[in-house]
Each structure stands twice: as structure tokens, then as C-alpha cells.
User: What shape does this take?
Amino acid sequence: MRIRTLTALAFAACITGGVSLRAVGDDQSFAKIERGRYLAVAGDCSACHTVPGGKPFAGGAALETPFGALVGPNITPDVATGIGAWSEADFLRAMSEGIGKNGTRLYPAMPYPAYTKVTRDDASAIWAYLRTLEPVGNAVQSNQLLFPFNARRPATATWDLINFKPGVFEPDPAKSETWNRGAYLVEGLGHCGTCHTPKNITGGDRGDMVLQGALLQNWYAPDVTTDLRTGIGSWAVEEIVRYLKTGANSFDIASGPMAEAVENSTSHMTDADLLAIATYLKDSPPRNGPAVAALAGNDRRMVAGQAIYEDRCAACHVSSGAGAPTLFPRLAKAPLIQSDDPTSLIRVVLIGSRAGATAAAPTAPAMPAFGWNLNDAEVADVLTYIRNAWGNAAAPIQPASVATLRDRLQR
Amino acid sequence: MTLVFSTTSAGALVVKGSLPWTPNAGDPPTAVLPGPWVYFIPEEGAAIEALVDRLIPPDPQTPGGKDAGCAVFIDRQLAGSYGSAEGLYMRGPFANGTPQQGDQSPLTPAVRYRQALAALDKYCRATFAGKSFAQLPDDQKDKVISGLEEGSATLDGADGKMFFAQLLTNTREGFFADPVYGGNRDMVAWKMIGFPGARYDYRDWVDRHNERYPLPPVGFAGRPGWVRQGP
Assistant: This one.
């Protein structure tokens, strides 16, 4: 009996050995699958296609848009509910043209306007990886848009005409290999602009405002151009790498959707790729936003705001606004604090927030909620103060903006 | 060998990964609002106001116990979990413990106040020609209070000494507790002693000796400086 088992094992080993020998160069190649896995992480596919704590890539994570909700579909190889019946060609077409199996036009929540820049080779590796996933039976109703946006075909065909330029990324021969790798990741697989680029009325990227900051799901994805006041102009390349790798640097700590992006994606990317992203971002033109003068310290909003800051904020963020590295975000000269759109600031003061946790920065410090303690005028004034103290300069915040967001967050 | 596992639920939970966090987390206190008595009947309220105003008499700098809101504080406490002894073991056997063992009374604080105030009223009306405690001149009020403290004024149906001790404690609590609980109106008690309120830390001041700390007191609900001043 024992001998028979051993024989069977040896036989099995021969078979698997044989398969792996034959597999070099085809879809069963470990190197290709592993590269596909890495690229799927770099593309943060799980952000939409995996529910937190759920089965990987089985779909179900909702993306709230101004047009209604879109839910990431199941992309495991399950035939009935996933993409098990798809061919590689179907997948490549979805990535590059936004057209799914049987010619269905995808909604651009699937960032095919960015993924079209992904090379065929990389998309093929991602496909090879997705084929190795455990098939999960999970039917997802993807389109939960409001009328008339839920009528898929005409709407998205028109949308593509306005907003979609298909085509693989073209390297700039005048730039370094690192720069080009960064551009490829930022514009393509990383689809940074999906959150950080302002949208036109149809929800498409505004080509004249790339990465200048945009609002989504009651968060403001800040300006990541090299603007000195509101962007990353003052961040060294190493600081950008550290932010993407750990979620925290000397200036800021990732929170909200960016904390998820860091946890699920950028913290798992190679240092070389992060350096490439940082190199490219640092070489991008600044936003050239309007010059803003700081409010005078004796402005009545500033005086009230400073009193609130001293009593409620200074304990962690320190009276000088310096914060504590990797624990309490710096407020002085911090780009997010001076953003044109204060939504994220109002939000974290009202309901609190939680930083991302990564292997390198596992603490995940949290900001407590102050919505119970500060009324709309007080929230507005304390934020007006931090936006105009310590060398910061930004427009004052109106109590009505706080009231509006407070109402939206309670719904 | 048999291992016996207790399945009694304990208030513990296992945390894996990162600590739990939810938006809007927190358990803020419910602010006491001014208004009519919640627990006391009007006569009891009048007596308590007179008592706390003799325990902490007003002076030119600081209001007394009554104007500071101590009676309101005690009223709301008795109407709440303190008054009903919620969270205390309140079943027998009841025995006289040692002083170190603390309060062993089978009566809740709310019931004790009610009994003691009724007994005090009876005592005052019998002793001072039909006058209630609140109607007495200050020197007579003080004599009654001293009598309660020393045990020389014997109440019918209540322990005067125990009542005095409890009332003094609760009055101090009302005077110095955060204004959100109804006493310490406008943080008068904190201003009197120079306590800057519920502040988180003083790192900016650790190394600055012999300087006056400049910030005024702040309570749970804030301070006047939070509101925009001037035009």
C-alpha cells in the first residue's frame, strides 16, 4: 500500500514536472503569471473587483459616481458569473478598447481610457494571471446607474467619441527610461488620473487639467502636479517614493481611497517602479493655479479658528502645524491643506478618518471625529485658520460648505 | 483529563490586523439643558439651592453654588444613572461595613435625597416655627448644616450625617465638573482656581517656567473664543 502511494506520488511529480517544462513561453509560464500578478497589483484591479475581505476579484465593490453606482464585476474564471467564457482576445479588447465580450461597451469606470496605454504583452500577462484564479460563483449587477445613464450602448459610444483616445503608450525618446516607465505607469496601468484628474460634464478626463485634483465619493483627490502650494512641487523624489511605499512621508499620511490604493497597490510595487512614478510626476508641469494671499491673522475667522485649533487640534498636530512624522500629518505648508477644494478637510474633521496601514508603517493612526463637537461655523473657521497659518494660503471655508457635506455624509 | 472551557461571554474581543475604526466614532456626553427640575419637586429644588449656596457661598469674584448650577447638576445626576445606582450591586445582604468599604446603603442616591430632604423640611419646620430650610436666615442655615455634619441635628427617617457627606461631595462635583453636566456655569470654578479645562497636553509649556499659562479654560462644548468676535 505504502509503495503504491509513493509510486503514485512519483508519477504525479513526473507529470507536473513535464507540464512546467512544456509551459515556458505559454500562458502557463510561472514568470508570465507572476508578472501578470504584479501588474494586476500595480493596476489596483482589486480596488473595484474585490470587496474588502471578500474573495479576490469576485467583484462587488461599488464605485459611486455622479451618475449612479457602478459595481466592479466578477473577473474570476467562473464561466457563469465571471469571465471564464472569455477568450484572451476578448480581454485584450476590453483593456484597450473598452469593449467586452459580444461587443458590449463597458462603462469608463473600468479605466480603459488609461488601460488602452498598457502594452499587449502586459495585458496578456494579466490575463494569464487572472486565468489562474479560483473561479468564484458570484453574480454581480454591475450597472446600477440612474436613468438615463443606465442605457449603456448609445451613452458610452458617444462618450468614447468625446473622451477616449485608444492607443498603446508611446515612449518619449527624449526622456530617460525611468521617466518613460513612470509615464507608462501613471498614465496607463496606474490610472492615477481616474481620481486625480478633473472631469468634464460627461465624466471624462479634462485633458487640460491632468492630475490637477478632483472630487470623488466625497473625497478630494488632491493636485499631484508640481505646483508648489497645492501640489507635490516641494516633495523630493524620495518623499514621493516613501509616500507610495509606506503611505506616509514627512508631509502627509494617506487616508481614504488613497490609503486603499497604497495598501492594495503602490506599497507592493518595486522601488524601481515607484522611483519611475516619482521621477515622472516631478517632471510634470505645475498647475499654475491662481496666486492666493493668506488671510490676515486678525481676521475674525482666523482668531476664532486659532482658538479652536489650540483647544482641539494642537494636541496632535502641534501648535506650529508641524505634526509628528508618520503619525500626525503635517499641516504647515502641506499641499492637501491648501487644496482649492476643501472636501477632504471638512470630511475628516466632521467624521474622522483612518490612515492606511502598510508593512513599513503599520500603525494606521486615526483622526477622531469632531462633527459632534464643532458646529458648521466652527469647522469652517478652524479649517480657514489651518489653511492660512504657518505660511499656508488658501480660500476661506464657508459654513454652508460644511453644512452641505455634513448632510451628504449622513445620508 | 477533562478540560472545562467557560463559554460565559466576556466583554473582550480578538483584534486581528489593524485596530477597528468607524467614522463618527465617539461617545460624547449629552449636554444638560437648563429648564425645570427633572427629578426634584419644587420644594426639594428650593432646599437644594439654599443648601449648595451655603456650602459654596457667593463672593464678589465668584458666584455661589446656586448660581454656578450645582443644584441643576445634582437634579440631573439624580434623574440619571447616578441617581438610580445603575452599575452598582444593589442586592442584599446589606450590613454596616467599615468606612473603608464605602457606602453600603440599600437605598439609591435618588431615594436618599428624597427621604433626607423631606426629613430636613420636617426638622426645620419643627425647630424654626414652621419655616422651611430655604426660608431661614444664613446663620441659622449654617447651624442646621453644621448640625447635620456633626450628627447633632437628628432627622426623622434619614441619616443626616450621611446626607451631609453626600451633598457636600455632589456639590463639589457640580461646581468643578465640566459645564456640560449643568454645573460650573461659564467655567466659573475653573477660572477661580486657574484650571485651563480639558486640554490634551502642554508640550509647548513644559520648559517655560514661572510664566502664566495664557489660554483660558475650555470645556467639552468649547469656549467663548470659538465664536467669531466683532463685526
Summary: The two ends of chain B are 81 Å apart (CA to CA). Residues 1-9 of chain B have pLDDT under 50 and may be disordered. The CA atoms of residues 143 and 153 of chain B lie 9 Å apart. The interface with chain A takes residues 17-19, 21, 23-26, 28, 199-201, 203-204, 215, 218, 220-223, 225-231 of chain B (CB under 8 Å).
